[in-house]
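Teaching assistant here, posting this on the class forum so everyone can see the example we discussed in section. The complex has two components, and the goal was to see what a joint structure prediction looks like when all of them are supplied at once.
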Amino acid sequence: MTAAGPITKETARLRWKTWACAAVVVASNVSGNYLLKSGMPAELPTPLAYITVLFRPEVTLGVLLLILWLASRLALFSWADLSYVLPVTSIGYVLVAIAGRVLLHEQISNKRWVGIALIMAGVALVGGGTAPQTYSRETTRGDRR
Amino acid sequence: MKWALVGVIVGATTVGEVLQAIGMRRHGEIRDFRLGALGRLLSVLVRNWMVVASVVAMAVSFFAYLGLLTVSELSFAVPVTAVTCVLETVLAKYVLKEHVSWLRWAGASLVVFGVALVSA
């Protein structure tokens, strides 16, 4: 069975699974990075400060969310292409900009709106226009049930 | 200092993500998401050197990124590290042998330009 074959049911299953997992990847990354940034002090003067900062509650929760990000991304890479995952999960940049406007009442300039439109176009092209998996499954040793 | 950190981040992220993709592809598609199965999966993955090396590389990249944020603005750090998207798409084609169609090239390029504009 190859990914390029005309198995539409299998393709559809993989696409939905990919989108669900990508949603977890993006949500955990955006929320994790937000907490990390809001809990981070202005300066980290010594190497020890890099370690002790991890024990601030916001930073700890942020790190836990980034562990979920790592785990969900490992899962995603177990079936989806790298050249698919990278552009599609970039929708996170858009969510950060939107969250800045909604939560922090930041202004979104025209230049930023253009950037948001470009990212969304890129995500739509790759996510909607290409299959999540293009390599042959014969080359992997995965479980085939 | 700033550009040295950028070099470390781009290098470590690229190596880490490509190793992650190769290591997980060799493992094969994860289909069982129940807790017990995930525990067994973890014990398999800690013995997958590519996955372990990728996590080490991502940790290097993470701490270098924290360092970069202390010496530069977010509006510099975010777009400059988004360059890895194009670099890794090239590696996905030649190392991972993925079929990178013109739609994917266009998508990856749009994302990088978009990130530059959003962060500027």
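For the discussion questions: The radius of gyration of chain B is 16 Å. Chain B touches chain A through 54 residues (CB under 8 Å). Think about how each of these relates to the inputs above.
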